Here is the input.
Amino acid sequence: MSAGGAFGGNRGLRPVPPEKGVFPLDHMHECDQEKKDYLNCLKSSSHQSEKCRRFSKKYLECRMAKNLMARQDMSELGFGKETKAEAPGVNESKRTDE
Here is the structure.
């Protein structure tokens, strides 16, 4: 038998809480469209999240606006200055030229 216990859990270590704490789930589906946009972008870009940062940012902004997570400066969440790839309209015009 493994040393992890009957169901594979490690009984010797205490669980570590999430870094940002607990936040409510979106039971009322207030940010569903933003979530769907982000997931569709991930699917169409072979799950390369850097190509979908603007959708991720919109989703987090929606969650903060609807009090589904604590308000934070976007730079604290990894959204500092926009790069050329993240700038609105750059990706769309790039795709039409190809």
About this structure: The two ends are 57 Å apart (CA to CA). Residues 49 and 77 are 14 Å apart (CA to CA). Residues 84-98 have pLDDT under 50 and may be disordered.
